[in-house]
Amino acid sequence: MIPERVSGQVEEYGFGGLVTAIGVFTLIDATTIAAPGGNAVGPRAFPYAVGVLLVVTGVMAIVLTFRGKLGKAEEAEDVDTEVRTDWVTVGKLMAVLVAHLALIDVAGWPIAAALLFFGAAWTLGAVWWRALPIAVVLALVVQVVFASGLGLSLPAGVFEGVPFLDG
Q1: C or N: which end of the chain has fewer Cβ atoms within 10 Å?
Q2: Global confidence as pTM
Q3: Which helix (H) or strand (E) covers residue 156, if one does?
């Protein structure tokens, strides 16, 4: 049996290494994004920022683990081990995600995203008449930010030709 301290170190080194590897992958993959000229902030800016933050976080986790600064194990006092996984909820969330993926090209991002946001919130217990307008507004805001602010083209679908929604 592995002593608890050594086991904690292995897990934390693994976590730091995984976060660092994901950051490096993100940075390398961001170089393949085609960036149109003339934009002050292009489509690579966010992946580069996320990649750098992931690498810094992962390396710091490794350094702190090496220095003996391990995270404290939680006692899990608020975890009920008798509760089973709610597979119906998991299935509903998977169905909403699959519907989102299927609708992006057909109906466009705003409709597919609104369905995703609404379906996930409703599945997790939100009141439908509150979740629906919030989901629609959030989907439209994301569309406008990507299309107008970043110059990235998310499929507009039925909103094709609407100036501020069509990237």
Answers
A1: N
A2: 0.59
A3: none
